[in-house]
Amino acid sequence: MLNKGQSEEELFTFLSQKRREDLDHDFILSSMCTIPHSVAVRAHCMFMETNLGDPGLFPGTFSLEQLLISRFGTLFHCPDAEGYATSGGTESNIQALRLARVEKSGIEKPNVIVPESAHFSFKKACDMLSLDMRSVPITKDFRMDAGAAAGLIDRNTIALVGIAGTTEYGMVDPIADLAKIAVQHDLFFHVDAAFGGMVIPFLDYPTPFDFALPGVTTIAVDPHKMGMSTIPCGCLLTREPDRLNSLNIDTPYLTVKQEYTLAGTRPGAPVAGALAVLDYLGVEGMRAVVTGCMKNTERLIAGMETLGYTRAATPDLNVATFICGKEAVPGAWRVSWTRKNHLRIVCMPHVHAGRIEAFLTDMQNSRTR
Ligand code: 0PR
Q1: Of 262, 278, 294, which closes a domain?
Q2: Ligand 1 closest atom vs CA 234
Q3: Which of 250, 278, 306 is where one domain is finished?
Q4: Which of 22, 27, 32 to mutate to test the pocket of ligand 1 (most atoms within 8 A of CB)?
Q5: Is residue 288 located within the same domain as residue 360?
Q6: Average pLDDT over all residues of the chain
Q7: What is the pLDDT of residues 76-89, one digit of tens each?
């Protein structure tokens, strides 16, 4: 630590310099986060010091968290759903599997059935919870093979996981088939809709993925991805009220005597930000955002194919992937590469039509050079 404090001017000159070292969103095509909506930023600033870890001190902020959960419950066809705001998909996925584990605590060597395409947060969860992760292959169209998933279930299986919007290819697993399998085997079924939960409901032809399907137990959805909130904000929802209570531990000196959350101190600011975006845009506004992202994805795929690059998948959501050599992508652009070495571009709200055209022009120039 510095012995003598710096002047504010000196300090902020330094901070501004550091901030300028961060990359420009105009060139970020690899991220599932985006520039927060202006109403999210405004709301975030109003709630900066609020701590949902001690909700009795911030009853107003706590009621916003409840409202956020109830907005998602309604959107996901279960107005009575309960849950809480997490730090994002990783925490939601860990907590969902923790809940499954606690509910089936009698099983000595528990396993969970997870698609090969699952986000790496499930590896963390299984590691922390000592769960055997059984990986289900994906089919040619990059979706989880439901038949293969059913074949892996045994008496030690405590949960089944499906992904509504895969990180790498933007695919929605056959959630309806998986939900049926879950009902047949009386299994806990967690849907990771961290990305897709704020896309699928706003598509012209939404695939069923939520509590409308009787077998779905819990859903993870991240406002800090397509919900354009400030970071960090995820949500974990349970169909049944009070279900999370089985994770409760005693917190004797807080304003609440028990809590089921993973984190202790929890920021209220991004929760206010997330709710602000939902209530400002409404279904119509979100639909416009999602329609724009889907159009841009289609345009990107068409443009790349005109340049001679084949799509790796035909995505359900706004993630485009291509068979393309790494050297073909000009250095200024931040793209990512899947485990199968496909070029991956996430058409987030900040990746607007102009940026797609700029990228395509650069790709063309690099091709002809
Ligand atoms: N589930 C799915 C389907 C995800 O795509 C992700 C993250 C998670 C869970 C975990 O969410 P948190 O990171 O909020 O805990 N998907 C992105 C990814 O790994 C996260 C991300 C975002 C990565 C922005 C990079 C980045 O710049 O690609």
Answers
A1: 278
A2: 14
A3: 278
A4: 32
A5: yes
A6: 97
A7: 999 999 999 999 99
